[in-house]
């Protein structure tokens, strides 16, 4: 997540209903982070907290995205490079233990899953340490908890939020022309919506850009299907007219 030259390479783009092979020349990166208070509200327990300090969101992943009109969306499993935690430097691990934990699933297994599914698609066939160091660095630089707090939005079980509250908070920090995307968990008992995951997008030089890549004319936001593995929390859905940012 530091600028570097992007090499042209062949990736296999896995779409929702089909798989195709493309030579991609332009990339975008999606930094997805999840609010721990919401995740642990809908999950039975969260025993894998690492050194999480409650002052940030938890990294879900850093996802390379092609900018091809025909394949805009997640690209996955681009090369064989099994996750090996021994390849990650200790100083990188120290930061990861704060910003990227499994919460309700084993942390090492979660990181390994994200590396093999998304990290292997990072242009230039970067090392595992580089990928995780980049993701952790972006999470520290763009602290979603702090961005919301600057607009007076803190976790509060009783405060109702609307879409413009979140968008305006991020626009105040990232710029009014930058579009972010976010989604919620829905409590199956109360019917309340909890702010669950938020995505900020970056260009090839890892500079903020708008998340405007469309999968179809009917879908203006980038939403990877999150319900395909043991590392998926409850289904993410569009937030209702009002939603909550729950306390830890």
From TrEMBL:
InterPro entries, per the entry: RNase_T2-like (IPR001568), RNase_T2_His_AS_1 (IPR018188), RNase_T2_His_AS_2 (IPR033130)
A GO CC term assigned to this protein in UniProt: extracellular region
GO molecular function: ribonuclease T2 activity; RNA binding
Biological process annotations from GO: RNA catabolic process
Source species, domain of life: Eukaryota
One Pfam family from the record: Ribonuclease_T2
Protein name, entry field: Uncharacterized protein
